[in-house]
Model the fold of this input.
Amino acid sequence: QITKATAADLSKFTQRQRDIIRSVTPLIKPGGYFLYLTCSAFAGENEGQVEWIGSAGPLQLMEQRLFTGYNEGADTMFGALFRVL
Done:
């Protein structure tokens, strides 16, 4: 996908992710955790979403990390752990 994705594709994926996030985060009790995980190397789906998540509800970012795998022929993944306030 890294060489074939278009701006329109990324916009569609980002919106779909936000729809999923909006539907699941209200189900998490205060003090619970939400792990946002992608197999994307695109900042819009990773750090951009983390910024949006932080502004969209009572979620505190605990840690975020990019797991690069392309040097070893594997997927790149991104994870961000939030705690619900």
